[in-house]
Amino acid sequence: MILLLALLLIASGCASSVEVTGEATKQDVFQLRADLAQAQQHAQRARAELDTLTAQLERRVREQQSDGERQTATLMQRMEGLSSTLATLSARVDELAAQLEAAGRQPGAAAPPVRPAPAPPNAAPAPPSPAPLAAPPAVPAAVAPPATGALQPQDIYQAAYIDFSRGNYSLAIAGFREFLRRYPAHDLAGNAQYWLGEGYLGLARAYANAVQADKEAEALSQAVQEFRKVLVNYSRADKVSTALYKEALALIELKQPQQAAARLQYLVENFPQAEEAPLARERLAGLKR
């Protein structure tokens, strides 16, 4: 009997153990499934965020490429425009050079275009006969270039400036002098006078590189004179303060510090708001030390 009871107790204990173990295993499976579902949700959210970020990145790359392409296209258009402008200016410069050369020969060839040769005794001094003199009033038009290619003040100025920008200082000086000779009261006359000084500074640098001290000093002296004329002849020009500063620099190169200091002092006192004023103060302080 006792043995039977013991066997029954053992059997009931084993059953309880199996039930407990089976319940624990089910709970583990449920937990794993819950964890898996949660992990899948996290993975889906991460994938969605990744897709969103990827789309944003691709969009930004496309936008940057588009911006770069637009900027490149804009630059190319500007370059093409500048190239076209340069070609036009170069052609205009050649045309102006030919016209200037023709104008230089014009005084000796002014009479033939008017064609008074068939009646030389009567053509020039015959005021009483108006009919034969109908053609002579056209002499100025013969001396000047044709109306379609007539020289404008800006043409001469621009041609001289192009020569200066290319380092052809002698040609630039000649061009600006011609401009001032023809149009001394033009709005660009003050600028032309200033660029004359710059032209001589350019010559001075060229002579310095060629170790031609005498010619360098001569060019610097001429630059001083040209810069000074800006203030004397065009006191309201935009380039006055710049001309004063460049004149002082040329005087420093000529080993004339007192005259240079005087010009810098004049610049500081009379043009305190000019862009060159701070530079002039620095140079002036250096000269006084």
Structure description:
With 289 residues, the chain is mostly helical. The chain starts with a helix and ends with a helix. It has helices at 2-109, 111-114, 120-123, 139-143, 153-165, 169-182, 189-209, 213-233, 240-253, 257-270, 277-288. It folds into two domains: 23-102; 150-289, Tetratricopeptide repeat domain (Serine Threonine Protein Phosphatase 5, Tetratricopeptide repeat).
Strand-helix topology:
Blueprint: H1 2-109, H2 111-114, H3 120-123, H4 139-143, H5 153-165, H6 169-182, H7 189-209, H8 213-233, H9 240-253, H10 257-270, H11 277-288
Helix pairs in contact: 1-5, 5-6, 6-7, 7-8, 7-9, 8-9, 9-10, 10-11
Instruction: State the name of the first-level CATH class of the largest domain.
Output: Mainly Alpha
CATH third-level topology of the largest domain: Serine Threonine Protein Phosphatase 5, Tetratricopeptide repeat
Helix and strand content put the structural class at mainly alpha
What is the averaged pLDDT score?
Answer: 73
CATH architectural type of the largest domain = Alpha Horseshoe
Instruction: State the helicity in percent bands.
Output: over 70%
Radius of gyration: 45 Å
Instruction: Give the count of structural domains.
Output: 2
> Uncertain regions: pLDDT < 50 for 5+ in a row?
3-11, 14-20, 106-148
Q: Count the helices. How many?
A: 11
List the quaternary state of the chains.
single chain
Number of strands: 0
CATH superfamily of the largest domain: Tetratricopeptide repeat domain
Largest β sheet strand count, sense and barrel closure: none
Alpha-carbon distance between the two ends: 129 Å
The SSE string, one letter per element, is HHHHHHHHHHH
